Amino acid sequence: MPENGILLNIENLKMWFPITQGIVIQRHVGDIKAVDGVSFFIRHGETLGLVGESGCGKSTTGRAILQLYRPTAGDVYFEGENLCQLKGEKLRRMRRQMQMIFQDPYASLNPRMTVGNIVGEPLEVHNILKGKALKERVQELLQVVGLNPYFINRYPHEFSGGQRQRIGVARSLAVNPSFIICDEPISALDVSIQAQIINLLEELQEQFGLTYLFIAHDLSVVRHIANRVAVMYLGKIVELTDRDTLYNDPRHPYTQALLSAVPIPDPFVEEERQRIILEGDVPSPANPPKGCNFNTRCPVVMDVCKESEPEFKDIGGEHWVACFRV
Predict the structure, then answer these.
(1) 5: burial class by Cβ within 10 Å (0-12, 13-18, 19+)?
(2) Both 201 and 265 in a single domain?
(3) Which string of b and e fits 121-153 if b means at least 16 CB within 10 Å?
(4) How is 113-171 classified by DSSP, letter by letter?
(5) Same domain, yes or no, for 314 and 189?
(6) Is the domain of 54 the same as that of 200?
(7) In the chain, which residue ranges form alpha helices assigned H by DSSP?
(8) Is 75 in the same domain as 167?
(9) Domain assignment present for 298
(10) How many other C-beta atoms can be found within 10 angstroms of the C-beta atom of residue 73?
(11) How far apart are CA 224 and CA 143, in angstroms?
(12) Are the beta carbons of 234 and 250 closer than 8 angstroms?
């Protein structure tokens, strides 16, 4: 993968959670392979969309990148520094550069803390500001995300879902990061509020030169905000390319099935196109199928798919696909 202009490079990232049996003596009997050998890169200033159905490992990937979960294997290079090898103070200093906006604005804000304390906490933890300067910075951040700066003494329960998510965005901006992971930041919000938060994120990206990993399962939202899109299925990335190529020429059968489910606001086009209905359920990450992970549901499965795992390869123009038919 190219090195020029790359902020984040992930190589063969794995996040397995052990399954144990027994009460007194616990035996390791297996693993839940939440993320199983993921590789991609993100360039400075771009937005990479990470899509896939619930439970495919998107959020776990984001948390493993930030070292909130320590990966089972693989490397995460941030500006050339391998985060997986950092500990203690060195990792804490790197964390100023990377922040996260969490999925649920109701659960991610401490109900016992005021908005001023919530947004100002990162500044105190990293010993950046104190006293009056801290208060002024918090008010400035609230203004940046479109909230009244005099709300600093209010508590989270006094705000709507959209306002709470703005507070979460303000908190993520507090330490001037260069990279933010947006973990489904709009999935818990009303549709009318979703557009406001998306527009806010785009404005902030332009204003502060931010780089995003945007995790979502809404393909129409990702099409709007992302430069490139990675499609994930059962812990693995099956396709990765730029936005227009993915939506106009999807090559992996799973991507084609996902896109066929997105409604098009044109009745004539909607009537003409063919829906791809996937049979069966997603296999358990504790017991993934042999060969290609998608072979149990793939409408065009071949014998080789059930025996060997397809290589995730570039088919030209930085269009990466893991499929024997491509």
Answers:
(1) exposed
(2) no
(3) ebbeeeebbeeeebeebbbebbebbbbeeebbe
(4) S-HHHHHHHHHHHTT---HHHHHHHHHHHHHHTT--GGGTT--GGGS-HHHHHHHHHHH
(5) no
(6) yes
(7) 58-65, 88-94, 115-125, 131-144, 161-173, 191-208, 219-225, 243-248, 253-260, 267-272
(8) yes
(9) yes
(10) 14
(11) 25
(12) no
pLDDT at 163: 92
What pLDDT digit, counting tens, does each position of 1-50 carry?
445 689 999 999 999 999 999 888 889 888 999 999 999 999 999 999 99
Q: Answer yes or no: do 168 and 244 share one domain.
A: no
Q: What is the largest CA-CA distance in the chain?
A: 68
Residue 275 sits in the same domain as residue 247: yes
pTM across the whole model: 0.90
d(CA 36, CA 61): 10
Confidence (pLDDT) at 270: 67
Which letter does DSSP use for residue 320 in this model?
A: E
Amino acid 2: pLDDT: 44
Say how far residue 290 (Cα) sits from the centre of its chain. Answer: 27
- Within a 10 A sphere around the Cβ of 94, how many other Cβ atoms? 16
pLDDT tens per residue, range 178-234: 999 999 988 878 888 888 889 999 999 999 999 999 999 888 889 989 999 999 999
Token pair 């990792």 in the structure block, residue: 91
Q: Measured between alpha carbons, how far is residue 287 from residues 31, 33, 71, 282, 322 in Å?
A: 8, 8, 19, 11, 20
